[in-house]
UniProtKB/TrEMBL annotation:
Organism: Zeugodacus tau
GO biological process: signal transduction
Protein name: Odorant receptor
Signal peptide residue numbers: none
Pfam families tied to this protein: 7tm_6 (PF02949)
Transmembrane segments: 47-69, 89-108, 169-190, 224-248, 297-322, 328-346
Localization of this protein: Cell membrane
Length: 423
């Protein structure tokens, strides 16, 4: 079997791809210092990032303002009945605000993210260590004292498959969402309707119009292109935040899995068993500190994701059942987006929780009973430390797990049915 050497940049392909799409400057750490040279392309990327961020903020204000602008044409009045107008605005604003606070959090905590990158790079196994572990992998029977195993290939393929799926889904959703207004316009032209209504993706107030149904093709194109840019910005911002969190989770899962493997293979009767155990305890302490730092970086997004996702799923569902078929198709893209978003961060938290729960069992089922009194005292101390597993939390309010995801879906459905019953 051919040996393949991995480095941390192998796991960063999709996070860097998303950051480049968003024109966000790369994080400053030892592997990409050359990307921060003041070149023309570097300045251009920064300018584009500032411009698209401003456009996103302006569009959020435009969508919010559209709820208070009176409908001045019969077509516009017929487009959005009063009972669905508020749900549409809140659903759309939730989506755009989700993308904005994710990128703002990355920008605000970029120094801490760079520090985590450096520490993860220091923990990443060297090529020499990977070769030694590959030889152990080839031997089917592992012996006690042979050391732990890094499952680099498994976690690289797993994280790449997840981020590849998310990228394809977002590309499909973006194209589908922005193609519906064009398809509506083409249908009106083909069927030779007497009055052609130009309708953009969402109802937003712009200086050149005050309702969604435009009276001119030029106004429609300006609104359509503006909203297409905003959609692109939102998707790239969300991808940047989610891929970065997925990368950190993958790295922590890989290290926790190695720790379990090393503990289960530790030989308590070896002369240097106490030294090896102390090294693993120190390694575990380092991982716990990194996990807390990563949690602190994403604390804001965890809390807002839990709140926004809960409300947005119910709002998108209400908008789907209250608007016409074409608009329902567009809102279904947002509905599936929030379902996937909630699943992603809750599933990542659930995997960390399950992986760290295995550390306790790995310690107990080793041959600790053959160790010295000092070794056994350290084992007891280590078991007490690992009794409470590591988990991501939203400001300590609730842990991220699949149980939390089911609560989100349950609460969203209750809100949906309550509003429908009132109507």
């Amino acid at each position: 079997m051919s040996f393949r050497a991995y480095d941390m940049k192998t796991f960063l392909v999709y996070p860097e791809f998303a950051l480049n799409l968003a024109c966000f400057e790369s994080f400053f750490w030892s592997e990409n210092q050359h990307l921060h040279k003041p070149t023309t392309w570097y300045r251009l990327k920064r300018s584009i990032y500032v411009i698209i961020t401003i456009i996103l903020l302006v569009h959020i204000c435009a969508v919010t303002a559209s709820a208070f602008v009176p409908r001045v044409t019969p077509e516009a009045e017929a487009y959005s009945p009063s009972d669905s107008k508020l749900f549409e605005v809140l659903a759309i604003v939730s989506y755009f605000c989700c993308s904005f606070y994710k990128m703002w959090n990355i920008f605000w905590r970029r120094d801490d993210i760079s520090r985590v990158m450096e520490e993860l790079k220091a923990l990443f196994p060297s090529i020499a260590k990977q070769k030694r572990l590959a030889e152990l992998n080839e031997s089917k029977e592992r012996k006690i004292g042979s050391g732990g195993i890094y499952r680099l290939e498994y976690y690289e393929e797993k994280s790449r498959a997840i981020m590849q799926f998310i990228t394809r889904y977002f590309m499909f959703a973006y194209v589908a969402y922005n193609s519906i207004p064009i398809m509506q316009l083409c249908f009106a032209v083909i069927t030779q309707q007497e009055h052609i209504t130009y309708r953009a993706q969402a109802n937003a107030w712009y200086p050149w119009h005050n309702h969604n149904d435009h009276s001119s093709f030029l106004g429609f194109m300006l609104s359509y292109l503006t909203q297409a840019i905003v959609e692109y910005t939102s998707i790239t911002f969300v991808m940047s935040g989610e891929f970065l969190f997925c990368f950190f989770t993958t790295q922590m899962l890989m290290h926790y899995n190695y720790l379990c493997s090393a503990l289960s293979a530790l030989d308590a009767s070896a002369p240097d068993a106490v030294k090896q155990l102390k090294a693993l305890i120190s390694y575990h302490t380092h991982l716990l500190r990194l996990s807390k730092l990563i949690n602190s970086i994403f604390n804001l997004t965890f809390a807002l994701d839990l709140i926004i996702t809960t409300f947005a799923i119910s709002l998108m569902g209400l908008a789907i059942v209250l608007v016409n078929f074409a608009d329902a198709l567009m809102f279904s893209a947002g509905f599936s987006f929030f379902l996937l978003l909630g699943y992603l961060f809750c599933n990542n938290g659930d995997e960390i929780l399950r992986e760290t729960m295995q550390i306790n069992s790995a310690i107990f089922y080793s041959n600790w009973y053959e160790g010295s009194p000092e070794y056994r005292r350290l084992i007891i101390f280590f078991i007490m430390r690992t009794k409470t597993p590591c988990q991501y939390q939203a400001y300590g309010y609730t842990p991220l797990s699949m149980e939390t995801y089911m609560r989100i879906l349950k609460l969203s459905y209750q809100m949906f049915t309550s509003v429908r019953a009132i109507e």
